[in-house]
Amino acid sequence: MNVDDAFEEFQQAVNADPGAVREARERRDLFRDAFSSETDVDEIIASGSLARGTQKDPIHDVDVIIVFDGSHHPDWGHPGESAAAALNHTRERVHGLLGSAEGTFAQEVRLARWRNHAVKCFLDEPEDPDAFTVDAMPALRRDGRLLVPEAVSEDWIACDPEFLIAQVAHRHATWRKFAGTVRMLKSWAAQQPFDVKSLVMEVLALDHLPTDASRPAALKQFFVSAAFAMDGGSVVEDPAGLCGPIQSKLDYAAFAGALQAARDDAAKAIQAQVSNDTAAAIAHWGKVFGADFPAVGRGSTVKPTAVPRPVKDTPQG
Amino acid sequence: MSSSETCIFVPGEAIHKIAGSSLSGGTLVLQFSQADEIFVVAAVEIGHDIRSSTLPSRDYLALNGVNASFDGQWLRAPEPGDATSLHLQHLLLARRPLAAIPIDVFRDLVAGVRDPGNKRGFLITHDPQLPPELRDLGCPEFAGWTIERTGVRPLPLQIEPECFGIEQLAATWPVERMSTIRVLLVGCGSIGSAAAEALASVGMGTIDLVDPDRFLWHNMIRHSLAKESVGRFKVDAMREHLRERWPHTTVHPHREDVVEDAHTVRQLFKEADVVICAADGIAPRRVVSHLARRAGVPSVLACVLEHGAVGELLRLRPTPRFGCLLCMRAALANEGAMDAEADQELGYGTGSTHQPMSAVPPDLRLIGTLAAKVAVATVLESRHGDHTQRLPGEHAIIGLRPAGDLAPPFDVSFAGEIRWSTIPSPRPTCPTCSPP
Ligand SMILES: [Zn+2]
Fold first, then answer.
1. Which of A123, B213, B232, B396 is packed most tightly, with the most Cβ within 10 A?
2. Do B339 and A312 touch (CB under 8 A)?
3. What does DSSP assign to residue A58?
4. Whole-prediction pTM
C-alpha cells in the first residue's frame, strides 16, 4: 500500500455513508417541496455541510433555510418578540405541512422543537442509531444578506451562509479533492479531547488548505500554517465577516497545541515520503488521523523507521 | 531633515573652495537632474569672476546626471553681533515645516542677498565662526536656503563627508587593528564571495584569494559577481569587485587549486592570521585543515550540507585541545551522525565531483558572512584580547531548511537556528594532529 492508497482508504472511512447522504438529500427535498407552495415563502436554500459537500460520517443534521417574504411578516426582523414568533411560525408550518399526524403535504415529522436559530425536526424513531434531524431556519432576505432570528437574544442577526457555500464550491472546482480533504480535517477535529466545531475546521481550511498540492502535501501545509495562525492568537470567524467568532468557547490554547502536534507528525510523514519510506510515512499520518487511518504493514512487511539519519559528508560552498 | 525632500548635494570640493575663498560671497552654479530631483553644486566663484568646477567624480553617476543649470549664491554669514546666529535660526526653522523668514528681514540680517525676482533663488551660507555650543546643538557650518519673495526657507544640504568608509566606526570598531590582519580565503564561490565581501567591509587589511576556477554563467545565481565577470578567473574578478567598493583592503588573487598546488599555496598559510575554506568538496577542506594546522594558524571551514538544508561552520584551532577536520569527522562517523562513505557516491576522479547546488543564494551568503564573523572574532579574541568577540564553541550548525530528521548534532529544527558545540580532541594516530 502506498501513501495515496492509504489516503483513499481513509477517505472512504470519513465519507458519510452513501445511503445516509441519499436519505439526507431526500429529506432536504421534502422540506423544499413542502414549503415551496407556501404563499409567504420566497425560497428555500439548502445550507450546511451537505450543501457544501463537506459532510463527514455520521450525518447529524440537514440544514434548510426558509426565506419568508417580509411583506407577509412586517413585524419580523426587529429586536423583540418577533424572533420567537418566526421560530413559532416555522414550527407550526412544519407541523401543518409535514406533521406525522396532520401533515397536509406528507406525514414525516414526529417532533419539531425550536432552538436558538432553527426548528429541529425529528423524523426517525427515537432509538434509531442513524437518526438525523432536519434543521429548518426561518429567514428574511434584506440588503443581499439573510436575517435570522436568535431566540436567546430576542433579536435577528445578519448572516451569509451562501458565501461559505460559494467559497467551498470555488475551491472544490479548483481541486477536486478539496471537499473530501476537509472531511478528513473534520474527522481529525472530532478526535480531539476537546470540542472543535466542524465549521471551525471548514473555515480554517479556506485560509490554510491549498488547492495546488498533493493531498499529503496540502494537509501538511494546512497543519503548519493553521498552527502558526492559532498560535498567534487568531480567532476563526465567519468568513462572510458578519457573525464574528464561529466557536467563542473554543479552547484555543488546546487547539493550537493539537495543530502543532499534527504539524510535527505531518512534517515527519512528508519527510519519510521524500526518503521513500512509505511505511514510516503512513505510520506518521496514522498518528495525525488516528485509528481510522489505515494501519501500517497491511499487505507489507516493512516496519516504520523514524530514526534520525546520518548526514552525508557532501560539503558544498 | 528627511532625505526624501529636495536637497542640494554639496561635493567636498565645493566646501573647501567656499571655506578657502577670500571673498565674502559669490555665485554658485547648481546643476539639476530631473529624474532624481537632485541639485548639485557644480561650480563656485572663488575670486572675482573666477569660477572653479566642483562636480564630484564620474563614479557618482546620479550626481552627474544633469539636465539643467541654475545660478545660485553663497555668502559668508554675518559676524554674530547682537542678532541671534543666522545658522541657529536655520536650525530652528528647519524644525518647523512651512515656517519662513520674510525676505526683507532676511536681507537685513545677511548683507548682499540677491533679489530673486519672481523666481526661486538658492543660497548657501557659511559660518566659519560658529560657536562650539551651537555646533553641539546641531547647527551646521554650511546652511542652505531658498529665497523667494514670499519668504526665505531652509533647504537641506547633503555635504560630502571627509570619510565614509569603515574609518567612521573607529570609535567602536578596531579599524586600525583590522587593517593589519591578513586572511587567506580558499574558494571564491557562493559562500567564499560573500565571506570576501564581509571581510573587506569590516576593514580587513589583506585578503589572499585562492581559487582556480573561472566565473561561469551557472555561478551567477549565487555569487557576488555578475554578468560583467562571466569568463574571468574568479579571483581576478573578485579583486576588482572588492577594490571598487572597499579600496582600503589589499586583495591578492591566486589562480591556484589548494589540492593540486598545495606546495605553492603552503607559503600563504604561513603568512595568514586566519584561514577560511569555502571550497566545494571534501578534498580541499582536508588540505586546508592539514596545512593550517601545520602552519599553526586557526582555520574556519564553511559549507552547506544536505543540499542546503543545514550550514556548517567548523573552527579548527591548532592546539592540543582541539582536533582537525579528520578527527572531527571520525568522531561524527563513530556516533552515527555522519555518513563518511557518502563521498564515494560523488565519484571522485570521474570528473563529477560536484552535486547540483540547491541552496538558495541568501542562505549561502548567511554562511559566508558568518564564516567571516567567526574568522575575525577568532583573531580579535585571541590576538587583541577583545572580550566582545568570544564565540560559543568550535562547531556551529545553522538551520537553513532543516526537516528535523538529521542525527545530532545536525538535528536543528528551525530555520535560523544556530547550534554551537565543541569538537573532539586529536586522535593519537592522526597524521595531521600528531605528526611522527
Ligand atoms: Zn586530527
1. B396
2. yes
3. S
4. 0.83
